[in-house]
Amino acid sequence: MLPKFDYHEPDNMRSALELMSSLKSNAKIIAGGTDILVNMKKGVISPKYLVSLGKMKELFVLEQRKKGIAIGSHVIISELAESGLLWKNFSVIAKAASVLGSPLIRNRATIGGNIVTARPAADLPPALMAVGAKVELKGKKGRREVSLDEFFLGPGKTVIRADEILTKIIINELPPFTGGDYMKLGHRKALEIAIVAVAARVTLDKPQGIIKNVRIILSAVAPQAIHAVSAEKVLINEKPTEKLIERAATLAMQDCSPITDIRGGAEYRKEIVKVLTKRTLLNAVKAVNRKKVKGER
């Protein structure tokens, strides 16, 4: 059974911010409810108040901007997975969304919820980090933007304050000759928490050229999604040969410290990091050349 709580549904953002400011740590935002209601039933959390932002239309918008896109925090996962805009320009996000949970979960869960719960194996954070996403946080005293690289502090912990609301995700336009990929391994094909997941994004100076920028994000192998720093460094300003990518994948194993749990052993997870890092990097490089063939940027 759910613990007792009071439910609020403010009419506008100003009222919502006033409410969160007054209730502070006693309140939680509820969006799709796929995480928070489960945690409440388990007794993990027991907020006295749940605040719904369901009347805030601006939080349900996925829109293209002059130099990127903005995604409202209440956009559901299935919309991300089916977005032509994302598949064309930020396919790593669309791919991560398409393998999150089941169709029923994807039709309820929101991008903001998947971020703020700060689960080490969540699907969207590594993909969003791969493209350098930032989140907009609003409070009664103002707004701020925080890079997702700095947002997570550990399992279930983020920099968001008790009186703040995550309102949108902001992603700048990616440079030309950029490709990305996301892969995860689980015991099942659906409704599965990742044993290991890897998101990669590669930017070349030209097709078949050298790597000018790369991000490799490892998930479910640390308290939060992390960069494979050593692997990223070895790739910069180099031609992405299979031999070099193999070396980077080996270094990625050393950049993580997975634990052994019911879903997999630590050494097994390290081996899977190597496999998925190699595959995502190769796919990201191939994506650059496919775009060139199709006449895209």
Global geometry: globular
Largest sheet: number of strands, sense, barrel closure? 5 strands, antiparallel
Poorly predicted segments: 293-297
Helix content: 25-40%
Under the CATH scheme, the architecture of the largest domain is 2-Layer Sandwich
Q: Count the beta strands.
A: 14
- CATH level-4 homologous superfamily of the largest domain: CO dehydrogenase flavoprotein, C-terminal domain
Please give the CATH class of the largest domain.
Alpha Beta
Do you know the CATH topology of the largest domain? Enolase-like, domain 1
What is the count of structural domains? 3
Order of SSEs? EHEHEEEHHHHHHEEHEEEEEEEHHH
Beta-strand share of residues: 15-25%
Helix/strand structural class = alpha+beta
Tally of contiguous helical segments: 12
Mean pLDDT: 93
Structure description:
It is a single chain. With about 300 residues, this protein is an alpha+beta fold. The chain folds into three domains: about 5-50, Uridine Diphospho-n-acetylenolpyruvylglucosamine Reductase, domain 2 (2-Layer Sandwich), CATH 3.30.43; about 60-170, Uridine Diphospho-n-acetylenolpyruvylglucosamine Reductase, domain 3 (2-Layer Sandwich); about 180-295, Enolase-like, domain 1 (2-Layer Sandwich). The protein contains twelve helices and 14 strands. The chain has helices at about 15-25, 35-40, 75-80, 85-90, 90-100, 105, 110-115, 125-130, 150, 230-235, 240-255, 265-295; strands spanning about 5-10, 25-30, 50, 60-65, 70, 135-140, 140-145, 150-155, 155-160, 165-170, 180-185, 195-205, 210-220, 225. The chain has a five-stranded antiparallel sheet with strand order 4-5-10-6-7. Helix 5 (about 90-100) runs antiparallel to helix 8 and helix 11 packs antiparallel against helix 12 (about 265-295). The protein is globular, with a radius of gyration of 19 Å.
